[in-house]
Amino acid sequence: MNAAATGDTAHAMPDDARFGLRRHVTLAGPLRLDGGMLLSPVEIAYETYGTLDPDGSNAVLICHALTGDHYVASEHPVTGKPGWWTRLIGPGLPVDPARHFVICANVLGSCMGSSGPASENPATGQPWGMAFPVITIRDMVRAQAMLLDHLGVARLRAVIGGSMGGMQALSWASTFPDRVAAAVVIASTARHSAQNIAFHEVGRQAIMADPNWRGGAYYGDGAPPTAGLAVARMAAHITYLSEAGLTEKFGRRLQHSPERPNGAKSFGFDADFQVESYLRHQGISFVDRFDANSYLYITRALDYFDLAEEHGGLLANAFRHTTARFAVISFDTDWLYPTSDSRAIVHALNAAGARASFVELSSPFGHDAFLLDAPEMNRVIDGFLRAGER
Amino acid sequence: MNAAATGDTAHAMPDDARFGLRRHVTLAGPLRLDGGMLLSPVEIAYETYGTLDPDGSNAVLICHALTGDHYVASEHPVTGKPGWWTRLIGPGLPVDPARHFVICANVLGSCMGSSGPASENPATGQPWGMAFPVITIRDMVRAQAMLLDHLGVARLRAVIGGSMGGMQALSWASTFPDRVAAAVVIASTARHSAQNIAFHEVGRQAIMADPNWRGGAYYGDGAPPTAGLAVARMAAHITYLSEAGLTEKFGRRLQHSPERPNGAKSFGFDADFQVESYLRHQGISFVDRFDANSYLYITRALDYFDLAEEHGGLLANAFRHTTARFAVISFDTDWLYPTSDSRAIVHALNAAGARASFVELSSPFGHDAFLLDAPEMNRVIDGFLRAGER
Questions:
Q1: Domains and CATH numbers, chain B
Q2: Helix (H, G, I), strand (E, B), or coil: what is residue A224?
Q3: Interface-testing mutation among A136, A213, A233, A252, with chain B (most B C-beta atoms within 10 A)
Q4: I need a surface site. Which of A48, A170, B84, B93 has the fewest CB within 10 A?
């Protein structure tokens, strides 16, 4: 345990949370951020599963995506849904609390208990709002490293993440080359493209155009910019699915309603098409569990992400000092972070002399495939982790 | 001239409008719409270039896209920009007023002079707003047919359009098989996909979430829902460009500003990246020239478009009675209406025994390629039109 910790609370868990251990720690810091600011204190909400081996060698860090959280294998306290990666993590699964000490922390800038725009600014006693410093993927990783110090984990057997989680895995191997034995990078990229940035900018403008946003100072009166955040979510959600997947799932099928039991066009602006109804639902349900300012900050961190730029413009330089093994996995219908992005990572790993394996998996589900039933992905990860444990 | 015309005004044109003849006609109608309503009167703003041959055989109808207008080869009165298709239409170009009588009409539902939500509802003397009937692509085409009646054009030598213009060209050949000798369908589709609908739904929700929208009744006080409309435009604009084109044009290049003359991240929420600045500009400049309600109506017409559905579910049936020749053109980087959509049109034309030629052109510019410098497209159209004139 690290002396910098100023508080750590383990809450009793309800039975249905299975094997999760809900925790929150306030670390004194300060954490020096890429933007130059010192953040103190650093609050981190996290979950752990399993037990750390006496030699501290079995820790596996799971990194979550943009709108994810640390409830990776525990019931979400707001939605009541099971953990978001229970297909990968659990008894008998590739990441197994019976043999791994699994850690998942809410990223810096998020809104599920870690420091972010909705958390308290110690200088004012009020929520940070837009006074919260702009953070980077590397800042998120540095905060996780502070948490590992606190937990007594010197080195990770593996760091695993999809999408933004994969960026964190890459950043981990690059920023802390001695602390990572293996990295699994799924449906991810080493840099955000112009199109990636463009979609995020649409979302940010949607939030900021909502009069309820009020420069981010909306926490006091229960009127957050939900309309803008819902539009942002809808736009982003399209990028998580494939065109073919949308066609298969919805096509041009019409909604059935009491007025139109057989499904017919309304010649109005109701959600005639099932895909419209689905998207509206995605937008509306998202605002119940996510903070609009956090959405601004995390999309900004994603857009700033360019691992090569942090290393003189050459991606291979990011991996010069790593001793980690890498498994890079892409999905053929992912157009948010397409296979070519994963290939660029693998080329750089090869150029740096790192041990890298790469597989492109087939799935109709686009970017979201890594969160869905993906037996091949599980087999790849299982084999990759066991190879390191032999 | 048709007796139903209640007014036709030819305005004197400034010299810089070149050879355009700005016109507006109010036709008594009524026009029976696909939604069941009767629209009367039907106002149509249009331009013509060149002279109709005595035998009426040289008319070419140009159909515009979602946010286009009839200023196809004339200066736009609001933006002052040259006509949107002066690369295709003009002296010595494939469509040449020296040998063609060129017609381009603002579509029904739009906001540049034709009947739409911003025009006057005769029942109230006020703008229609959301009381304007929901219209379809076929309704747009029927209104154009009324205009051709008024102009004394029985049969079109060609109907030409890109994107939504291509849908109108298809609908023309299907709805008025005896009035179309040739159709050029560029970067288009015979049906809107689930992903197409999804993107439009994001735009509509952005507009409707803007408190200034007020159920569409915003015309009185000079406070239209510009913020929502700008977000809608930004989201749509991404779909008009290719990922590779965005990367080539902007990549991750940063904006230069007085505070950051060498281009550096602001660690704030300014438009750091050039692509952000570009998108914001696209949104802001759009709201000066377009009506938010028109955007709702025309996107709805696009989403409703499914030519096969209008013909018992079999696209070939749409072309059973046509005698037209078809040229179908797609662009390899167009992901809004990809080449596979054009291929489906050509398959149906072949199945119906229609004369169809098909070409996929290479361009880095995505869907917007048809509006940009495309010498190969011009050669294809020129050859296609001349073949029909021999």
A1: 5-193+301-389 (3.40.50.1820), 196-294 (1.10.1740.110)
A2: coil
A3: A252
A4: B93
